[in-house]
Write a structure and sequence with these properties.
This protein is of the alpha+beta class. The chain is built from 10 helices and 13 strands. Helix 2 packs across helix 4 and helix 6 packs across helix 8.
Amino acid sequence: MARTAPLSCLLALLVAGPAQGIRGYLRAQDPGPRPLELKEVFKLFQVQFNRSYSNPAEHALRLDIFAHNLAQAQRLQEEDLGTAEFGMTPFSDLTEEEFGQIYGHRRAAGEVPSMGRKVGSEEQGESVPPTCDWRKATGVISPIKNQEKCNCCWAMAAAGNIEALWGITYQRFVEVSVQELLDCDRCGDGCQGGFVWDAFITVLNNSGLAGAKDYPFQGSVKTHRCLAKKYKKVAWIQDFIMLQDDEQRIAHHLATHGPITVTINMILLKQYKKGVIKATPTTCDPKHVDHSVLLVGFGGGHSEEGTRAETVSAQSRPRPRRTIPYWILKNSWGAQWGEKGYFRLHRGSNACGITKYPLTARVGQPVRKRLVSCPR
């Protein structure tokens, strides 16, 4: 009978440990994890993320998908050039198709509103601070949300943008209603997908947004069930703009005005655990963007082991410390995912298409229109 590794060892290698342990363990198996060991890890996954399946056939199917995803995480670990770690996540029992249908959104081919990119002369030539993290400001960033099985990343990113800008501008913390954006959306498809600009247009059409406590998130949409007129508005916007597709200017706007929504390729996020993702156009196509998130900061972190490529190819040589510039992004998949709901992308290489649609609202109190009367 083949020996099986203790569960505690599997935990260290497949859950908490870096890719070095995952890779070493999986390569020791031929051709992959032994059935008993894999089942033990799968049981751990079920307990950790509260998963249960309706029948043995479904359980067997999810086990196969889980094994495939662990192997994919290993490949991602070997390909990444940053400090990111990939492994077991809340999505490890989902296929790529299932994951994309639930957590992505429609592609933006030919559906971008006719709006020019903002060219701010005041931003040209301005220096950018070395770090910026709006999470450290009081009353700016709301808690991590979980879209669950509602395909509404676009609405949650837009809501986070409005909340942050309202807090910065008026020094008053607000949480706006994502559900109102879904129920009252005229352009998107609610939980079936949409874009950030759909959400902003809805806010403009409704003359503001209700609060999240009054109009709470349900994770579903009822047709013709818009309750926008029922509740008091807590935040408004004057309009929204698209920034230039330049990371230096995006960083400057982020540092001087506040968080920005961006839409990226989410292909690497399914298996992501922590660290800075440094992808190539081959591993993360910047032209294919399918997930909206909130850009809340940037910085530069030290990697004691150098890049991942160096770790794989030169394990015997000492590696210099490196500074990896990164973006800090707020996701909408719950605090169990990633770095307590956040993730980091390499800054300076248009990682995963981060510069394609940088959008932000411009908040402001509603303006009372002056009545016009005919002279007599």
